TrEMBL record:
Gene3D superfamilies: B-lactam Antibiotic, Isopenicillin N Synthase, Chain. Residues 1-36, 197-220 are annotated as: Disordered. It comes from the Eukaryota. This is Non-haem dioxygenase N-terminal domain-containing protein. Residues 25-36, 197-214 have a biased composition (Polar residues). Transmembrane segments: none annotated. It comes from Lactuca virosa.
Length: 338
């Protein structure tokens, strides 16, 4: 995939071909064809890379340290969320085996619930939510289907674990923000998108929606309804951060999840944390008929609103204490002057 992308980017910039060899002679700096070749080399376009040396310093924190309220880890996480709109969490407790097992019935379910299935370029998407699965279960051809019941149980379990991680991250951010003003958010239902990644050479050459000129607008509208998004693959892949400054890519693995900030959290923090949009890309082996999978879970943790309520109650208490102190000082001065 990386080689194909490099070739594509180079071809659009008019790759320079070396001059034909000259018999019994060597090109010199004064040779026009040699100079033309050098000039073209200077104009070779830049291309994206997943080389970790070019990756921005996005924080990677241990889940157990966040739960233990380690101040250094929480500070790193918050700084990364403020600067990049994202951070990574390792040691989250969801094994690659559990993730892969969750998709055992995926192909069957994608067909059974075709109204929730769609294709986006070289990958397939399945929209999951608890309410949608509850509605689907009422269907006569679904409610007693063993594959559906297994699939729903596994995905409920994965969603519960990812929500717990999101809650712990949001709680850490909320309780370590000092007395910064916060704004309440709408607590929307958690939603997951299940992605099946196919080898790009076997798929029609249609771009993903994220690769179109209006991708940022579409992602922004979708991102506005959630506070956090959690991204996790079933095997090693590439995470691409999509921004107005251009895409940034880095490797990601099942043992480390990527969390991006949604517009709800940006509004909740009055701009202290910036929202970001990104997606996982996996290029399975061309002979792998099963493909590979990844999950994106979007949620609005209620603990963010709890922080607002606590902040407001403290503010009212402070006001009452201030009034009492002023009254006592006034009485004291009145007594001294009488």
């Amino acid at each position: 995939m990386a080689i194909a992308r490099i070739r594509s980017r180079l071809s659009t910039g008019g790759p320079a071909q070396p001059p034909s060899p000259m018999p019994n002679s060597r090109p010199t700096r004064n040779d026009p064809s040699f100079n033309n070749y050098v000039d073209k080399l200077k104009n070779i376009p830049e291309f994206d890379t997943t080389d970790d040396s070019n990756r921005p310093p996005i924080a990677e924190v241990e889940y157990k340290l966040i739960k233990a309220k380690d101040k250094n880890s929480i500070q790193q996480m918050m700084e990364s969320a403020a600067k990049f709109g994202m951070f990574r969490v390792s040691g989250h407790g969801i094994s690659p085996e559990e993730l892969n097992a969750s998709f055992t019935e995926a192909d069957f379910i994608f067909g059974l619930l075709a109204e929730r299935w769609s294709r986006d370029g070289d990958r397939e998407e399945f929209a999951w939510s608890r309410s949608a699965m509850a509605v689907a279960e009422r269907r006569r051809d679904v409610k007693n289907d063993e594959n559906f019941l297994k699939f729903r149980s596994k995905m409920d379990n994965v969603a519960n674990k990812l929500e717990a991680i999101a809650k712990d991250m949001a709680q850490a951010i909320g309780t370590n923000g000092g007395k910064q003003p916060r704004k309440k958010i709408k607590e929307n239902e958690t939603r997951m998108v299940l992605f099946k990644h196919n080898n790009s050479s076997l798929q029609p050459h249609t771009p993903r929606s994220s690769q179109t000129p209006r991708s940022l607008d579409g992602n922004r509208r979708d991102n506005a309804t959630f506070a956090l998004s959690i991204h996790i693959p079933t095997e090693q892949g590439e995470f691409r951060l999509i921004s107005e400054e251009g895409p940034v890519s880095f490797r990601t693995i099942p043992n480390t999840i990527v969390i991006t900030v949604g517009e709800q959290m940006e509004e909740w923090s009055y701009g202290e944390f910036r929202s970001a949009f990104g997606e996982i890309n996996i290029e399975p082996d061309i002979q792998d008929e099963k493909g590979a999978f990844s999950i994106e879970l979007k949620c609005s943790p209620s603990c963010l609103n709890d922080v607002v309520d606590k902040h407001d109650s403290i503010s009212i208490t402070d006001q009452i204490i201030f009034v009492v102190i002023v009254a006592m000082v006034y009485k004291l001065f009145s007594y001294m002057l009488s």
